[in-house]
Amino acid sequence: MIKLVRTGFLAAVIAMGAPLATTAPAQATSLYDNPKYAAIMINPETHEVLYSRRADVPRYPASITKVMTLYLAFEALEADKLELTDRVVISRHAASQPPSRLGLGVGSSLTVEQAIRVIAVKSANDIAAALAEKIAGSETAFAAQMTGKARSLGMMNTYFANASGLPNARHLTTARDIAVLSMAMLRDYPQYYRYFGQQQYVYGKQVLKNHNKLLGKMPGVDGIKTGYTNAAGFTLAASAMRDGKRLIAVVLGGPSTMARDQNVAALLDAGFDVLNRRTQGVRTTVAANLNEPADFRVPGTATVTEQGSGDDSVTNGTRSPRR
Predict the structure, then answer these.
(1) How far apart are CA 136 and CA 94, in angstroms?
(2) Which of 9, 40, 114, 242 gives 20 to 30 Å between its CA and that of 221?
(3) Does residue 225 have a known ligand-binding role?
(4) What is the DSSP string of 25-40?
(5) What is the spatial distance between Cα 90 and Cα 46, in angstroms, rounded to a whole number?
(6) Res. 13: pLDDT tops 60
(7) Of 208, 197, 184, 193, nearest in space to 114 by CA
(8) Active site residue 109
(9) Are 203 and 127 in contact (CB under 8 A)?
(10) Closest alpha carbon to 69 in 154, 108, 126
(11) What digits encode the pLDDT tens for the residues 240-268?
C-alpha cells in the first residue's frame, strides 16, 4: 500500500510570507473534501488518465498560468519573433504588479532569457507582465493570445485574463486542461523545458529559489510549476521521469504547500508503482493505492493572502509575514 506521507523532506518546506494577510478559520477537513481541490495524473505517452478527481471542474490556476506565458515566449523564439538576448523593458504597469516580483524599477530592463528564468524560478508577476508586453504590446492582448492558444491545444475550459495568474474572476482552468498544457510544453518545446527544473537562479545580488520543493528531492521530478492565491489555494503541475517512463500530476486547491506537495508526491509514487506492477502482470489502479482522506487535515489557523505571491509557502498551515 502506498502511503500518502512517504518522505520527510516535505517537513523542511520553507515558510515565506506575503502582504495583505487575512486570517481564515481553521477547518479540519481532508484534502479530498476541500471544495477547491481537483487533481489529475496522466501518462503523456499514452494519454491514459491514471487518476482523476474533479478534473473538469473550473478552478483558479494561480501561477501555473505562467506555463502558458512561457509557452508563448518559446513559440515566439522558435518563430524568430524574439531572441534570448532581446531586452524586456519594465513598464509602469509591469512594475505595479503585486508579489511575487523581482522588483525592477520602471524603465529598467533584462534580457528575454533572464526574464524566462526569473518567471520559471521566482514566478515574478512583474516580469511576466513585462514579457507579455514585449511579445504582444500589452498584457491584455497577450492574455487574448493565451486563451487562443489554449483553444488550439484543446484546453476548452480555460480562459486567461492576465500573464501571471493573479486573481481575476474570469481567469479559470481545469486540472485536465493544465495537464494538457504541461504535455504540450514537453512535446512542443523540450529544448526549453530545462528552465522549469532550475532549483535556483542568481539575478544580480538576488538568489532566487524555486518554489517547487519537489525538485531535487522527489525522485525523477524535473518540473514544472507551482502557484498560490487565496482564491486558487496551493497549486502544482509536476512532471517526473523514472525508468524511461514519464507522468504528469496536477493538483489544484491544496490547503497548504505541504499538503499539496505530499499529495503530488503520493500520486507520482503510486502512478509509477502501478506502471511497474503492470509490467509484472498485476492489474491495479492509482486510486486503490492511495490512502485517501485522513492524512491531510489542516492544523491550527491558516493565514492566507488575497493577492498572493503566486507561490508563497506555508508550513503547518501558518503563513509568516513577507520580508
Answers:
(1) 14
(2) 114
(3) yes
(4) ------GGG-TT-EEE
(5) 42
(6) no
(7) 208
(8) no
(9) no
(10) 126
(11) 999 999 999 999 999 999 999 999 999 99
Fold classified for 9-305: Beta-lactamase (3.40.710)
Alpha helices by DSSP H, the chain: 65-78, 92-95, 112-122, 125-136, 139-153, 175-188, 257-279
Q: Domain residues of the chain, as ranges?
A: 9-305
The answer on pLDDT for 321 being more than 70 is: no
If one counts every other C-beta atom within 10 angstroms of the C-beta of residue 200, the result is 12
User: 269 is written with which cell numbers?
Assistant: 509514487
Whether 76 and 188 have beta carbons less than 8 Å apart is answered as: no
Q: Is 309 a catalytic residue?
A: no
| Pairing of β 302-305 and β 87-89 | unpaired
Q: How far is CA 23 from the centre of its chain?
A: 24
Active-site position among 36, 66, 122, 213:
66
Reported confidence tier of residue 311, pLDDT bands at 50, 70, 90: low
Say whether pTM exceeds 0.70: yes
The DSSP bridge pattern shows strands 109-111 and 48-53 to be unpaired
Catalytic residue among 63, 182, 239, 313: 63
Residue 233 φ/ψ region, left for φ over 0, alpha for ψ in the -120 to 50 degree band, beta for the rest: left
* Cell numbers linked to 60: 483558479
Dump the DSSP string for 271-292. HHHHHHHHHTT----SGGG---
| Weakest mean pLDDT among 13-17, 96-100, 233-237, 303-307 | 13-17
Using alpha carbons only, how large is the chain's radius of gyration in Å? 19
Choosing from 36, 100, 122, 123, which is the catalytic residue? 123
- List the one residue out of 126, 312, 298, 143 whose CA is nearest residue 234: 312
* Number of other CB atoms surrounding residue 300 within 10 Å: 9
